[in-house]
Write a structure and sequence with these properties.
Length: 501
C-alpha cells in the first residue's frame, strides 16, 4: 500500500478523509486569526491531506491559499501534488521577484525566507490570501511572517507539535490541535512499516550541550570519529543491516566522511552527502542511492525532510539528539511500506530510543501541545536517571585485564543516596570509588609497570564517575576538572606508596 499511488488516484485512505473532514469543519467555524494545528506522523500523507484542504477551501470560500515551507524540495513536492488535482499553483522561489498575473493562480507555495524578503519590500506582494498552511509548523522561523497576514486563518501541519524554540511554544500561535492517526494504528492497518529497534548502549558522557539545548556538533565529532564508535557502527551494520539499503545519520561532516571511508575500506557500496554538495552532485548521489539495492548513504541531517526513498530498509542513528522532532524525522525516512517491505531496522547508537521511547510508542500529543515544558522535563529527567544509574562500561579488551576483580557495578547515584541516608559527607562516594579502583589495580598488577598501565586504562572510568558525582551535587564544570585531577593524583600516590612498602 503506497502513498505514491494514493497521490495519483486521489483516493484518500479512511483516516486521511477523516482528518480532512475534521480540519475543514474547524476552518468553516473559525473566526479570522483563529489558527489550527494538525499532527500526523511522518509517512501518513500530510501533503495529501492539506492539498485536499486547499481544494475544498478554494471551492467553498473562493479565496486563495498560501503554503509555507522551509525547503525547496518540499515546495516542489507540494506543487506537484496540487497540480495532480488541477489546482493552479505557483512556486515562489528566489527567481520570482514580482507576481503581476496573480489571477492565474489559486494557490502559492513559498519558501519562508524568500517570501519574507518579498514582503519586506512590498507588503502587498500577495493578494486575497484567506488561508495560510504551514508545513513542518514546529519550526519557529515561520512566525516572523505571520504579521503580514491579518484576518486570515493559519493551519499548521507537523508530525511533532513541539516548537523548535522552547521559549515560544506552539500554543501561543495555534488555538487548538487536531491529532491524526497514531503510528501504532498506521502500522497495524498497513499504512506504515513496523520499525524494529536495535539499541546499543553508548557512553555519552563526553557530549556537551550547546546554548540551543542540543548536543554540540563538535563533541559529537570527537566521540563518533573514534575507532571504538566506528567499530560499534560497523559491527551493528554487519550484524543487522548488511545487504539492505541503509541510511546513516551523523551529526557532523567529519563523522559522515569517516563513516564513508570506513565502509568503503570494507568494500561496501557507500556514498556520503552533506550541505557542501552542489545541486548536481546531490541529485547524482541520490540517484545512485535509489538505483543501488544494497547502497549505504552517510548523511548529516539534510535528508530528514524533503527526501523520500521508499526502499530504505535500515536507518542508523549514528548520533544522539535531544530533539524528539529530529528523532522522528530521521526514523520516518525508513517507514514507507511496500508490498515486499513490512518492517525496517532502526539501529540506535545514541541512546535515543531510551531518551524518547521507541519510535512507535504512543504519545499524547494533546498533552504535549498544552504542556510542552512538562513533557520535555520528563524526557530529560528519564535520560538523566538512566545515565546516573549505569556504571561506565569498560571495553572488552580492557575488561579482560581485570579478571581477578569483582564485576560488581559501582553506581554513583546509589552510593550517593546511601551516604545521605547514613549522614555521611558526599565526598565519601569518591573515597569509596578510589578504594574500588585501587583494589582492582592491586588485584591484577604483577609489578609496578603493569600497575600504572592499568591505572591509565581506568582513566576514562574515573572521569565518568567524577562527572556523575558532580551531577548528584549539581557542581560546575570547573569543579569536575579539579576533582578529576585530585582523584587521579590521590590514586597515583597510593599506588606508589603500595610498591614502596
Amino acid at each position: 500500500m503506497e502513498l505514491e499511488e494514493n497521490i495519483s488516484t486521489r483516493q484518500l485512505y479512511p483516516y486521511q478523509l477523516e482528518a480532512v473532514e475534521a480540519i475543514f469543519n474547524k476552518l468553516k467555524e473559525a473566526k479570522p486569526n483563529e489558527n489550527i494545528l494538525f499532527q500526523l506522523p511522518t509517512g501518513g500523507g500530510k501533503t495529501i491531506i492539506f492539498s485536499e484542504i486547499v481544494k475544498r477551501y478554494i471551492q467553498h470560500f473562493n479565496r486563495k491559499v498560501l503554503i509555507l515551507t522551509h525547503r525547496i524540495e518540499l515546495s516542489k513536492q507540494t506543487s506537484e501534488v496540487l497540480a495532480s488535482i488541477q489546482i493552479r499553483n505557483k512556486i515562489i522561489n528566489s527567481e520570482v521577484k514580482t507576481l503581476t498575473q496573480q489571477g492565474d493562480y489559486e494557490c502559492f507555495t513559498a519558501l519562508v525566507e524568500t517570501l519574507n524578503n518579498r514582503l519586506q519590500e512590498d507588503e502587498e506582494f500577495l493578494e486575497d490570501i484567506g488561508l495560510v498552511i504551514v508545513d513542518e509548523a514546529h519550526y519557529n522561523s515561520f512566525r516572523k511572517i505571520f504579521h503580514y497576514f491579518e484576518n486570515v486563518n493559519i493551519l499548521g501541519v507537523t508530525a511533532t507539535p513541539l516548537s523548535s524554540n522552547k521559549k515560544l511554544p506552539l500554543y501561543q500561535t495555534y488555538k487548538e490541535i487536531i491529532v491524526g492517526e497514531s503510528i501504532p494504528s498506521l502500522i497495524e492497518n498497513g499504512y506504515l512499516a513496523e520499525g524494529v529497534t536495535y539499541a546499543n548502549d553508548v557512553n555519552l558522557s563526553t557530549l556537551k550541550i550547546g546554548t540551543n539545548g542540543e548536543f554540540t556538533t563538535g563533541s559529537h565529532e570527537l566521540l563518533y570519529t573514534q575507532a571504538m564508535m566506528q567499530g560499534k557502527l560497523l559491527d551493528a551494520y554487519e550484524e543487522i543491516a548488511k545487504g539492505t539499503k541503509t541510511l546513516i545519520f551523523n551529526a557532523g561532516i567529519l563523522t559522515s566522511i569517516a563513516v564513508y571511508n570506513l565502509f568503503k575500506s570494507k568494500g561496501y557500496p557507500v556514498r556520503y552527502l552533506d550541505s557542501t554538495f552542489s545541486d548536481r552532485d546531490r541529485a547524482e548521489t541520490l540517484e545512485w542511492f535509489r538505483n543501488t539495492k544494497d547502497g549505504i548513504l552517510s548523511s548529516v541531517s539534510i535528508l530528514t525532510t524533503g527526501f523520500d526513498e521508499p526502499e530504505v530498509e535500515s536507518i542508523i542513528l549514528n548520533r544522539a539528539t535531544k530533539s524528539l522532532t529530529l528523532y522522528h524525522q530521521m526514523i520516518g525516512r525508513g517507514s514507507r511500506v511496500l508490498p515486499h517491505k513490512k518492517k525496517f531496522n532502526i539501529i540506535d547508537l545514541g541512546n535515543n530510543s531510551r531518551r524518547f521511547n521507541l519510535w512507535q510508542f504512543p504519545i499524547d500529543w494533546k498533552h504535549v501541545f498544552v504542556a510542552p515544558h512538562l513533557y520535555l522535563e520528563q524526557r530529560y529527567k528519564d535520560e538523566w536517571d538512566y545515565e546516573l544509574e549505569n556504571d561506565y562500561e569498560l571495553p572488552a579488551d580492557i575488561k579482560a585485564r581485570f579478571l581477578n576483580s569483582s564485576a560488581e557495578a559501582f553506581i554513583v547515584k546509589d552510593r550517593y543516596l546511601l551516604c545521605l541516608r547514613k549522614g555521611l559527607k558526599p565526598q565519601t562516594v569518591l573515597d569509596q570509588s578510589l578504594d574500588d579502583h585501587f583494589g582492582r589495580i592491586k588485584d591484577n598488577a604483577a609489578d609496578f609497570d603493569e600497575a600504572f598501565e592499568l591505572f591509565d586504562l581506568l582513566t576514562d572510568e574515573v572521569k565518568y564517575r567524577v562527572k556523575q558525582f558532580s551531577k548528584c551535587i549539581n557542581a560546575s564544570n570547573n569543579y569536575i576538572d579539579y576533582q578529576t585531577q585530585t582523584y587521579l593524583s590521590k590514586l597515583r600516590r597510593r599506588l606508589i606508596g603500595w610498591f614502596v612498602e
